[in-house]
Specification:
This protein has eight helices and eight strands; from the N terminus they run E-E-H-H-H-E-H-E-H-E-H-E-H-E-E-H. With about 190 residues, the chain is α/β, with parallel strands linked by helices. Helix 4 runs parallel beside helix 8 and helix 6 packs across helix 7. It starts with 5 loop residues before the first strand and ends with a helix.
């Protein structure tokens, strides 16, 4: 499939930002005592930390996204070459705004992304991403959370969702599965 310019969205944590502990999300989501930290009881909704203590813990957990992922320069180059238009879409909740703005400045987001969006109204992350993907009419969206990918694939008709996976999920079959941003950049390069 050859196309003049692709519209590509990227999640932040675990995609644009390297996060070594994202691998353990698989383990944490399967353990009974950690489930309340990730999901509301008896639903598959993503957890929202309400109290100041929970939000403090959540802020500390997000500090594990501590550097730009390998491959960001390749994404920037594809953007500069006019092959892709890029958008940053993160499900981070409103209380993480300050850290989100820190990363926008640090990565010089205006040199990479045409637009960047965070979940300032504290929607369910998958619903926020779904709305933004549709609004921006993306061809591809790059995500590292398998639960969000499953939800997005159930409702998106024209956007292909790319998964940045990890070794613990290596047995899950998925057409657009890669193990890092470098691989995603190579895949996108090969579309031209």
């Amino acid at each position: 499939m050859k196309k003049s310019k692709l519209r590509v969205g990227f999640d932040l944590d675990g995609v644009i930002l390297y996060n070594p502990i994202r691998t353990f999300r698989v383990i944490a989501s399967s353990l009974k005592f950690t489930k309340p930290l990730l999901f509301h009881e008896k639903t598959d909704e993503f957890y929202f930390p309400n109290s100041p203590v929970e939000q403090f813990i959540w802020r500390q957990l997000h500090k594990t996204s501590f550097c730009l992922a390998d491959g960001i320069e390749k994404i920037k180059k594809l953007t500069e070459q006019g092959k892709i238009e890029t958008f940053l879409i993160t499900g981070r909740y409103s209380f993480l705004k300050k850290d989100f703005e820190y990363w926008l400045k640090k990565m010089e987001a205006d040199t990479i992304f045409k637009g960047y969006y965070y979940n300032k109204n504290d929607q369910q992350p998958n619903l926020f991403k779904q709305q933004m993907i549709k609004k921006l009419q993306l061809d591809y969206f790059v995500e590292d959370n398998w639960g969000i990918i499953q939800k997005l694939n159930g409702v998106l008709k024209t956007t292909k969702v790319i998964w940045i996976s990890n070794f613990l999920d290596r047995n899950i079959r998925y057409k657009y599965k890669f193990f890092g941003l470098n691989e995603v950049a190579e895949f996108l390069s090969n579309l031209f």
